[in-house]
Design goal:
16 helices, Ubiquitin-like (UB roll), mainly alpha, single chain, three-stranded antiparallel beta sheet, 414 residues
Length: 414
């Protein structure tokens, strides 16, 4: 057990100093919380070299652990919701984080929440503590928390963040759900064809060769494809894996990412989903920032980093450079001819009426509804397309075998 020297504030606000014994620094902070003190600094005494060495090793692992791991969007939503519930009940930020950090889920959030709690206990603000984990908490999240701290309305801001992340999680789940069924059909179809071409068709080929019959052209094509599958199937699969890996690596470059994001905006079925998702997120995020007192230029800078599509994100950056008076956003956005007229026109109406946040809310709701429609259209179109493709492939295999059997039967009758 090590000895820790602390400086803290009592419940009356007086500064107190002393020592406390605990197995580690976390337990020392828990003990100070139990005593009713708000820690300012907690440091281990130099007398215990073994404990110090142990703590130092843990510290190195601790720092690396945070760089390597992150909380998922769903985990951030749960954390924000629970923290908002605790703050709304009247609990202080430090006490709320202490409560959340006591639970052990085995996920990255355990260590991240503990780190935020330690920063708060040492006197940092919540926004500064969250900013230490940029891979988990976006600039939008940190900026919103900072604005809530400045105006003294942190619970209200966190409610807005909860609503924002709920929309984002819901949108992502809808898109994933739309692709699950076609992916299952494709996977089952590929597996079935691999089995038929690699095992079943060669057995038929041996039978027909032993009978010495002349095979129809479709059957010859089928047997040729089967030979290619059995001989070069592994090489083709390996080449596909390498090609996909190289393509993914190329997409991560700036030039490749720009080309890929631009291509998605030109794909017939994908374009509607990408645009609706980006525009709804743009309007919703900008509305939240502007309604909480964030300056237009700063808000556009934050929104630019939250949009995943590079083409749309760059257009927001260009519009931000064209904004001069800080009051008009619609005209700079319209000048780029990337945003549809519906968005710029509705924003112009909001600027004229002085209620820009409300017009942005209408835009966000409209594109969220459009996103739902586009996802349903994608699902309704992909399913019959996948079924048709698999039916054609399986039908070709069945027809090729049946033609050979029919020719063989006619030959036997002669």
């Amino acid at each position: 057990m090590a000895t820790f020297t602390y400086a803290a504030r009592s419940r009356s606000g007086e500064k107190v100093e002393g020592t406390v014994e605990a197995d580690d620094r976390r337990l020392a902070l828990v003990e100070l919380e139990r005593m009713g003190h708000v820690p300012i600094s907690v440091q281990e005494s130099s007398g215990s070299s073994k404990s110090k060495e142990k703590t130092g090793k843990q510290g190195v692992h601790f720092s690396f652990h945070f760089r390597a791991r992150r909380m998922s969007m769903a985990d951030v939503l749960i954390f924000t919701t629970e923290l908002n519930d605790l703050l709304s009940s009247g609990m202080q930020v430090g006490s709320a984080l202490m409560t959340l950090s006591k639970r052990e889920t085995g996920k990255a959030g355990d260590d991240i929440i503990a780190s935020i709690r330690d920063e708060i206990m040492q006197g940092a603000s919540l926004s500064d503590a969250l900013a230490q984990h940029p891979r988990t908490f976006s600039k939008l999240y940190v900026s919103m928390i900072c604005a809530g701290e400045a105006i003294g309305a942190l619970p209200e801001i966190m409610i807005r963040l909860v609503e924002h992340y709920e929309k984002m999680v819901e949108t992502r789940e809808k898109v994933i759900a739309a692709l699950v069924y076609p992916a299952i059909i494709a996977g089952c179809g590929v597996g079935t064809l691999a089995f038929v071409m690699g095992w079943l068709v060669p057995r038929f080929e041996e039978v027909f060769k032993s009978l010495g019959s002349t095979l129809p052209l479709p059957t010859q094509i089928l047997f040729g494809l089967s030979k290619m599958t059995t001989r070069y199937g592994l090489f083709v699969a390996a080449a596909l894996v390498v090609a996909i890996a190289l393509a993914c690596r190329a997409i991560k470059t700036e030039r490749g990412r720009t080309w890929w994001h631009g291509a998605k905006l030109r794909m017939p079925l994908v374009r509607g989903i990408v645009e609706a998702s980006a525009y709804s997120q743009f309007a919703r995020t900008l509305s939240i920032l502007l309604s909480n007192g964030v300056h237009v230029l700063e808000a556009l800078g934050i929104v630019e980093k939250t949009i995943s599509n590079v083409v749309i994100s760059r257009e927001i950056a260009n519009a931000r450079d064209r904004v001069t008076d800080g009051a008009t956003i619609s005209a700079p956005l319209a000048a780029g001819k990337v945003f549809p007229p519906m968005i710029t026109d509705m924003m112009a109406v909001g600027e004229q009426t002085g209620d820009r946040a409300k017009s942005l809310d209408h835009i966000a709701k409209r594109y969220e509804m459009q996103l739902d429609r586009n996802v349903k259209i994608l699902t309704s179109i992909l399913e019959p397309i996948m079924i048709f493709v698999m039916a054609v492939l399986v039908g070709f295999v069945a027809l090729s075998i049946l033609l050979a059997v029919m020719d063989l039967t006619n030959g036997l009758q002669i």
